Amino acid sequence: MNFLTICSFSAFILSLIFTDDVSITIRIVAVIFLSSFWNSFKKRHPFILGILISNNIKSTLLVFAARNSNAFLPSSRSVFELMQPIIGELFHEEFWVIYLNSSNKVLKKYFLSKGGITSTSVDLRLILKSALQLGAVGLVLTHNHPSGSLIPSIADKNITKKIKEAAELLDIKVVDHLIITENSYFSFADKSLL
Question: The domain containing residue 61 runs over which residues?
Answer without folding.
Answer: 3-67
